[in-house]
Amino acid sequence: MSFKNTYQLLSALCITFLLCASSVSAQLINNAEFNEHDVEFWTGIGLEHEVNDIIGISFDYQVRYNNNVNRFKNTFGEAAVGFKIVKNLKADVGLRYIYNARKRYVFRPIANIVYKPLNTKKLDVVLRLRLQKDFDHFLREEFIQDYYSRLRVQFN
Question: What are the residues whose beta carbons fall under 8 Å from the beta carbon of 142, sequence distance 6 or more?
Answer without folding.
Answer: 135, 136
